[in-house]
Amino acid sequence: MAPVMTAEAVANKRKRELDEQSKRKRRKHGRTATKPDVANGSPLKPELAIRVNGTEDGPDHEEMALDVVKPDGQAKKQHKRQHRSRAQKEVAAKNGTCKWRVSKPIGGRMLNIDPILTEDEKHLIIAYNTSLQVYSAPESLLLRKIQLSFSRIDGRRDQIAAVCPSATSPNLLWVASYGGSIWLIDWTTGAGSEEHITLDCDRLHDMFVDSAKIGSDFKDILYVSARKEEAWHIIAYDVRDFELVGSKTLFSYTSAIENLRVAHLGHTFAAYAERNVILGSRKHETASTLEDLAYEVVTLDASDEITCLDIQVTSRAHLNRKSQREASDAPVIDLVIGCARGAVFAYSDLLPQIRLLNNPKKRHHALQPRKYHWHRKAVHAVKWSRDGNYILSGGSESTLVLWQLDTLKKDFLPHLSATIENIVVSKHGSAYALHLDDNSAMVLSTAEMKPITYVSGIQAMLSPRPISKDDSVKRIGQYTPDQLTSIPAAMSPSNSSQMLICVGNGQQLSHSGSGPSMPLIQALDLTTMQSVSRQALTRTNPTDVNVTSRGHPITEPRVTGMKYSHDGRWLVTTDEWQPPSRDINSLDGASSERRETYLKFWSVSAETQNLELMTRIDAPHHSSQVESVFDLAADPKSDRFATIGGDGIARLWQPTIRQRDGILIKGKKGRQLYSWNCSRAISLHGNETTGDLEVSNEFSQGSGAVAFSEDGSVLVCAAVHEHGSTVQVIDTESGRIRNSLNGLIKGSIQGISVLSTNLIVLSDALMVYDLVLDELRYGVQLRKAMGHEVEDAHGPGASIMTHLAADFQTGRFAVAVSRGKKGSIKVRSELAIFSPDGCEPELVQSFQSPITSLTSSPSSSGFLVLDSAAQIWAIAESMDTKSLAFAHPLADLQLDQEPIADSEEVTDTPGLIVEGDDEQASEDDMDVDMTDATDGDAIYPAVVAPQRLAALFDTAPSFAMPPIEDMFYQVTKMFSAKTVVPAS
């Protein structure tokens, strides 16, 4: 009778047979070198190390190609074929010979420029870096993207500086760039985006367009704030048919002139420079040529740094002859400014007061503006209402403030999603448009203060941190160094068009604490590039008093990782928080001893994709203190997750049916409830145990990564601690460590994955190891300074920005590496796609902005890249029908253009229109252009202030009211007429 062999004995026998077969093959091919001693912990020999770049990096890191040299005998075979350089690989990708293709970027950030609400209030126009996007106001749908072409200035790409509607034609827009380029674009068709003129200036800072009477006609005059010959000037330009007809310098100053505004048919302009208000008024009402355009300019000193202003000019109404003699027929100029310390100053009827200041008999006269102070920090935006009775202001408090001038009463619209950056009042005064710091914009009805339009893009953190008006004044705890941070992201297995991204409460709040704050999760629809929902995963302080008694901002927790289950029914997240060191100076112990770490399991709704918290595990990894969770992984075959932490233990988590006294607990709609518990704890020092483990702190300052095999039978854990590093291969059923591999980790571990029978380990070096043959396939040294170059190990190019993602559909994996020189803020990323069978990368692609997240979809092939400019790139195989094609811009589809025709009514299904996007680093969303109805009716219902209805019905008792027929006609007249509606 044959002896019975256990499964372990069979596996060992199979391994020995494979080893003997491998040795015979090596002897047959005459290999003279032995296999690298990885399992015994011997480091790789210098000749086996793989270098990044054969030469030193240039100043822009343009030579970051991955040149791979395989060990020993394979090196001879490798030496026979020439490696293609990175430039050759990118040319091959452009020519279509490369099997991988990289889409054009989608997403990006809205510029800090006032959005444009058209005269009919049907369309909202938003400016991005190199494009304009036109949205339908009632539906919040993108109608058109107008792409502009830019050149490079001083090594940096030019971008849009100002966008202004034409004062003579409602369908035209004037667009200016910082390099001095000027476009005249028809936003209804996109015409005019290919042709532009360039002004003679060193740098254009701001622009405003107003009509002025030159000769007998009213023409669009461009008022430009620009730097020229070491000074800043306000210059008036006359541009006709893309030709510069004339120009005249109106004012010159020694510092930058910002926030230029013009009103009353060019009668008055206003701007500010540091603490000075610049105000100019026309000397003569008429001018035969542009050279005759003359202004009387005065500068007014403010008591604080100015951050924003607005001007309102109205015709003067005389009550008697005396007022006419004193003030003449000069218009009434009202000015409001917002300051860096939160104050708002309103100046009324400035011209008579300025004349008194210039009068020698009135030497003691001084301007006395009205002061309004509610904002804690700088006022980011301020505007007059159309009737002049209200002032609107907004700042970092996420609250819109309406100041009623007559009664000094304040009205608030609180709890907005982020800092208010721009405020726009519609021409008829019935709507406000707000641009928020979290890359969103909305249109509010003035009567009901409810949003009728909402547009939101990718809200991920930017790097470097955007310049804020709060930086005008140094505050306690305000400065935080720019540091690149990896952003957790995940693709839903059940909904392949939805991507989850960890975000914060706007850019300013995310960067204001002692570290980056990302307590929220944003669900992004990749088919429309619109935000579907946003949900808090940790505690937040978005609108409460979020500063301490000493003025330091309160630091919010940060989501450090998230993974979907194999079927998309569960989402697991980890978040971490620890107090800033400044808050515990008077206490014993370090800040890390008070760390808070949570592991949370969320149930995903199949209908709405909303998250419901099922289980929260406090301190899932702990030794003598709470330890960080280094990494987590999802079992691709079952509802099981694995985590590895600073306690040197790998834990498996599985759900159990929730019961109470033996009775099943049901949730809403009779749904079964579950609780998640640790089903197995495996010490990386030895075998698995289910009791309390005695752990040391040697892993607390290290790093770790964990991954499942494709069938879920094997768990691989990589850990780096103060005594070295190791990779453990664990049987998930028994919890036993089957193999230990040393020498695969160089520096901190950044990622690990199992692709078929290959183990992929990413640290400062990339290692591909065959688990069956028990041999190293190849390695790539990723982080190695060459020659005189010194890489900043703790700066923006630190290894935290190294990413690994495996695509199980194609059997390929992608590696993203960001590098930066010491003392330089410029960081670039490079992405390479490898096959486990070959050391030659199939694609090498450079990115101008550092890559902050790299993900792959479980249900489709390809990769998604998120960079620090909030742009998403899709990388997929050219011939793969299951690739991530939904994330490509519609510009790649080459659809025919159907321009909007104002004279035609919509009688069929709206057509698609696409504008091409040739700018690699542009910030554009997906484009769907829909023909719109252009009848005379308003798109959304008219709104009527409650005061007007009260004035109609409360004028007399019920017995003295007019006939009901008359009342009906008066009410219908209110809702049908387009009148100016004052703010409520």
Features:
Methylamine Dehydrogenase, Chain H; disordered C terminus; 984 residues; mainly beta; single chain; elongated; five-stranded antiparallel beta sheet
* Largest sheet report: 5 strands, antiparallel
CATH superfamily of the domain at 106-148 and 158-456: YVTN repeat-like/Quinoprotein amine dehydrogenase
C-alpha Rg, in Å? 33 Å
Number of helical stretches of at least 4 residues: 8
- Strand portion, in percent? 35-45%
Indicate the mean pLDDT: 79
Helix content: under 10%
* Low-pLDDT windows of residues: 28-86, 687-692, 785-790, 792-798, 887-939, 979-984
Care to count the β-strands? 62
What is the CATH topology classification name of the domain at 106-148 and 158-456?
Methylamine Dehydrogenase, Chain H
Classification by helices and strands:
mainly beta
Using the 3D structure, state the CATH architecture of the domain at 106-148 and 158-456: 7 Propeller
Distance between the termini: 95 Å
Shape: elongated
CATH top level of the domain at 106-148 and 158-456 is Mainly Beta
